[in-house]
């Protein structure tokens, strides 16, 4: 009985293997790239150390599993990095400050050197909200700012405290956005100064998003339970666990 | 000692069994909102029926990039994190030494308003900045597409031309040699100097080297990465900068020579 079971399993395995052979025969006719992994079930790692640099995430920071942190990236307490972001600190440092949030699909990169001559790291200080789909390259964002969605901040930009960048604004390299002002446009131009009430709202927005990120954070178990699915896979394919 | 080892092993096994049973209990309690984790089914290189990507061995393709359909990537090129190169409707051809930076999208049109069907051809040593969107356009060698740029159907970017960041280049625009176009809609901004044009080739080369560093890191098997994690933990010291942000400023000690973990 057991032998029969083993036979059938082995037959199934060889049948699957031969079918795999068949598909690779067809694939060879179209010449796919050799030595190239087509499908890696491990997926993309979230934290990618490069050499001796290791991205550091604070314990209560929410970093979505979709995010790629590579190189010198530090995400401080209460910060959140939402799905689809890429924080690539391979040439220079990237810091996401306390209670800041980098929303969906942003790309934060740091160039090797900045046109202003200052250190070219990307520094996002505390209570900063960076709207979705923004691109930040070697810029410094001082505490309590709001960067609108789909904005592009180029090398060496400096956004001073309590300022707001409207959605879709493009800040040219080396541009300084003065404190307490609202800028918009491509290239970014001055619109008006902010009232005191609006300035008070800025950290409140960051704190609100921080609360939201806590809800998202609580959805994830400390360790993934993917091994259960792997075991099911192996069982169905007849590989011994 | 054999028996002590066996005892620890079986106790550990009981604890894990209990843990798994507790996991099942917790899942039952969660009821309708129970979430079961899945293996990542993301396929970096994906073929659409008979159109398969042909990616050179020396090219770096980030694992969460998607290279789908009829895409050819040349030697030394790099496709960075989160990119989507979709060659399902037509073909995408990327030359050597080109880099398509993070979160970009390269797509082709099967049919567009003017009726012409255009494959996307990106030449050698092109730098395509972060989050760019290239749709059915041709980019010649050593051009520079700034980050966030959107290039629509039929755009022809000539050699050594530059598309500024955030530009929206409308359909069938031709960007001549050595010029910078930008804005929404894109218009001529200025001409490039010789230094800047030489910089494009240099930047592509820099990116190729950077891609090799990333590729080396991704090629590591699980044992190597886990081992490095352990080594890092062992030789880690309290980060003065992190503590200083939290308000605890210390005198920095002399730099400890860390052993090379990689």
Helix content of chain A: 25-40%
Q: Find the count of extended strands of chain A (DSSP E, 2+ residues).
A: 20
| Quaternary state of the chains | heterodimer
Strand content of chain A: 25-35%
> What spatial form of chain A do the alpha-carbon principal axes imply?
globular
Using the alpha-carbon principal axes, give the shape of chain B: elongated
Distance between the termini of chain B: 35 Å
Round the mean pLDDT of chain B to the nearest integer and report it.
82
- Give the uncertain stretches of chain A in residue-range form: 7-32
Q: Major sheet of chain A: size, sense and barrel closure?
A: 12 strands, parallel
Considering the chains and any ligands shown, give keywords for the structure:
heterodimer; A: 241 residues; alpha/beta; 20 strands; B: 262 residues; 4 helices; elongated; Transf_Hexapept/Carb_Anhydrase (chain A); Trimer_LpxA-like_sf (chain A); Gamma carbonic anhydrase-like 2, mitochondrial (chain A); LbH_gamma_CA-like (chain A); Trimer_LpxA-like_sf (chain B)
Q: Which helices and strands, and how do they pair?
A:
The complex is a heterodimer of chains A (241) and B (262).
Chain A (H helix, E strand, L loop, with lengths): L1 H28 L17 E2 L7 E2 L4 E2 L4 E8 L4 E2 L4 E11 L4 E2 L4 E3 L12 E3 L4 E2 L4 E3 L2 E2 L4 E2 L4 E2 L4 E2 L4 E2 L4 E2 L4 E2 L3 E4 L4 E5 L2 H22 L8 H12 L4
Parallel strand pairs in A: 1-4, 2-4, 3-5, 4-6, 5-7, 6-8, 6-9, 7-10, 8-11, 9-12, 10-13, 11-14, 12-15, 13-16, 14-17, 15-18, 16-19
Antiparallel strand pairs in A: 19-20
Chain B lengths: L1 H29 L14 E2 L7 E2 L4 E2 L4 E8 L4 E2 L4 E11 L4 E2 L4 E3 L12 E3 L4 E2 L4 E3 L2 E2 L4 E2 L4 E2 L4 E2 L4 E2 L4 E2 L4 E2 L3 E4 L4 E5 L2 H25 L3 H13 L5 H6 L17
Parallel strand pairs in B: 1-4, 2-4, 3-5, 4-6, 5-7, 6-8, 6-9, 7-10, 8-11, 9-12, 10-13, 11-14, 12-15, 13-16, 14-17, 15-18, 16-19
Antiparallel strand pairs in B: 19-20
Fold and architecture overview:
The complex is a heterodimer of chains A (241) and B (262). In chain A, the strands form two sheets. In chain A, strands 1, 2, 4, 6, 8, 9, 11, 12, 14, 15, 17 and 18 form a twelve-stranded parallel sheet that branches. Chain A has helices at 2-29, 196-217, 226-237, and strands at residues 47-48, 56-57, 62-63, 68-75, 80-81, 86-96, 101-102, 107-109, 122-124, 129-130, 135-137, 140-141, 146-147, 152-153, 158-159, 164-165, 170-171, 176-177, 181-184, 189-193. By secondary structure, chain A is of the alpha/beta class. Chain B is 28% helix and 24% strand. Chain B has helices at 2-30, 194-218, 222-234, 240-245; strands at residues 45-46, 54-55, 60-61, 66-73, 78-79, 84-94, 99-100, 105-107, 120-122, 127-128, 133-135, 138-139, 144-145, 150-151, 156-157, 162-163, 168-169, 174-175, 179-182, 187-191. In chain B, the strands form two sheets. In chain B, strands 1, 2, 4, 6, 8, 9, 11, 12, 14, 15, 17 and 18 form a twelve-stranded parallel sheet that branches. The longest helix of chain B has 29 residues, at 2-30. The mean pLDDT of chain B is 82. At the A-B interface, strand 4, strand 6 and helix 3 of A face strand 1, strand 2, helix 2, helix 3 and helix 4 of B.
